[in-house]
Every structure is written in structure tokens, then in C-alpha cells.
Design goal:
This protein has 15 helices and no strands. It is an all-alpha fold. Helix 10 packs parallel to helix 15 and helix 13 packs across helix 14. It is elongated and about 80 Å long. The termini are far apart.
């Protein structure tokens, strides 16, 4: 039942932001209500500032339409970036609880931290995320991002290719959260399986050997599909591999180690 007593000021502002979102997107009230798991009349009461927004409704809305729960709760941008919330946390929350209360008690710091990570990874501010092509940081429904995965991957790849090698490596380490000690062990492992370990175990010794390595790589990638095979091995964009092979850009030490390993594998097959 709608309340007869006016909602608190903050609840009114949340309701108005819901109207703002739907107006900006040009969405039908019936469609949004279905996504939120409520009927159209309930949504109408929320938009008319008669009924407060509940956390279950807000979560469904944010996940489907990529709306920031921070923006919905406070009006602070970014507006369009939904952030992950662990399922165990959601399981501990009653969907009918007041959205503003749950956000303040449980979600506020979590959401802000995830937004800041995204902004840092893109080299922008929180507000700047609204200008990015992010769809969501969160796999909708625990699976693939709904209908937008290709767009997200393309945007991330474009941003990644703009970075220099050192920044790319720092970003990869941060994203997968691998301790520095583990990376050191990996470097030792790779240098141990390479035939020319003493030359290539440190990035400072790679540069003098690069012309020779590039010639070997050009021969190994001359056949159809071999550049793509190298790119897959390096987990690098094909465009970056092409620039490395042409000499337009020089790969970092870790990439050079992997290149050497790959070319030796190819040469052993011949």
C-alpha cells in the first residue's frame, strides 16, 4: 500500500532519479517494472514518490540497465556503471529491505572500491567512467554480460593497445592479482626452459638480441595463420604482434622471453 505520509527527502530523491533514468533511456514503465520484478502500478507509485525503492528492485534494475547503485543512492556519478556484488552478500540481504538502508550499511564501500578500480584501470576519474564504453564490471546473472560482451572486449582491447609495454604488464598483474614473488618465480621458470637463458633471463639483456630474434620470428610467422598463432600464444592483440615484428614497437622483456620460447618451439617442429 502506498504511504499517506510523505517519504523522507532522501527517498524522494532516489525515486526521482529512477524517473530521470527511465526518461533518459526512453523506456516504457511496463518494461522497467518487469525487469525490477514488480508490477507497473508499484513502479508508478515509486516514481510518484509514494513508495520507497527496495534493494531487490534496485539490484535488478542496475544489473539489467547498467545503472550505478552509487548514483541511484546518492546522485554521485558515474551513472551508468554497475559494479559487482558477491552472491553471498546478496544472499544475506532481504530483497524487500529499503535500498538506501542496505546501500549505506552494506554496499557503499564495496561499490565505491569497485568503481575506483575501474577508473584507475582506464586512467580516468569516477565521473569519467560515464564517457567510457563500459557496459558493466559485473557478469549479469553470474554468466556472460547480457548482449554486450563483444562491445566490452573491443573497448578494453583498444584501451590496452594504447598503453606502453610496462603499463600493460602492470595492469595485467593488477587485474589478476598475482603477488610479485609469483611473477619472479615465473620469470625464473621461463628462463630455465629457454636454451639461451643467460642472454634472455633479464629484460636488460633482451634488447641487444632483438634483431636476431625478430628475424627468426619473421621466418616462423611467414606461413598462413602463424602470426595469429603467435598472438594467441602471447595472449596479445594481433595488431601489437604486427608492430613488434615490423620493428615499429619493441616488446618488453617478458614478452620477448615468450617470443623466444614460441619461436624455438616452431623451429623444433621443422
Amino acid at each position: 500500500m502506498p504511504r499517506t505520509k510523505p517519504l523522507p527527502q532522501r527517498e524522494q530523491e532516489i525515486c526521482k532519479r529512477l524517473v530521470e533514468f527511465r526518461t533518459l533511456r526512453g523506456l516504457k514503465r511496463s518494461d522497467v517494472a518487469r525487469v525490477m520484478g514488480i508490477n507497473e502500478s508499484t513502479l508508478a507509485n515509486i516514481e510518484k514518490v509514494r513508495t520507497p525503492l527496495r534493494i531487490g528492485m534496485a539490484f535488478n534494475l542496475g544489473r539489467k540497465y547498467n545503472i550505478s547503485l552509487r548514483w541511484l543512492a546518492s546522485g554521485k556519478r558515474p551513472m551508468k556503471t554497475f559494479t559487482p556484488i558477491l552472491q553471498r552478500i546478496m544472499n544475506s540481504i532481504n530483497p524487500s529491505d529499503l535500498f538506501s538502508d542496505v546501500y549505506d550499511r552494506v554496499l557503499k564501500n564495496l561499490v565505491l572500491a569497485e568503481l575506483q578500480k575501474g577508473a584507475d584501470a582506464c586512467g580516468t576519474t569516477l565521473e569519467g567512467l560515464d564517457e567510457r564504453e563500459f557496459v558493466s564490471f559485473h557478469p549479469a546473472g553470474g554468466g556472460a554480460v547480457e548482449g554486450h560482451l563483444d562491445q566490452v572486449v573491443a573497448m578494453l582491447r583498444a584501451e590496452f593497445e594504447k598503453m606502453d609495454e610496462d603499463r600493460q604488464m602492470r595492469l595485467v598483474r593488477r587485474l589478476i592479482d598475482v603477488p610479485e614473488s609469483v611473477w619472479k618465480n615465473l620469470e625464473v621458470h621461463y628462463s630455465g626452459v629457454l636454451t639461451d637463458a643467460e642472454t634472455f633471463d633479464k629484460s636488460s639483456h633482451v634488447k641487444p638480441q632483438m634483431p636476431i630474434l625478430l628475424e627468426r620470428l619473421k621466418k616462423a610467422t611467414a606461413g598462413p595463420g602463424m602470426k595469429t598463432a603467435l598472438a594467441d600464444f602471447l595472449s596479445a592483440p594481433l595488431a601489437s604482434v604486427s608492430r613488434w615484428l615490423s620493428g615499429e614497437r619493441e616488446p618488453g622483456g617478458e614478452i620477448a622471453l615468450q617470443m623466444l620460447r614460441w619461436v624455438e618451439q616452431q623451429e623444433r617442429k621443422q
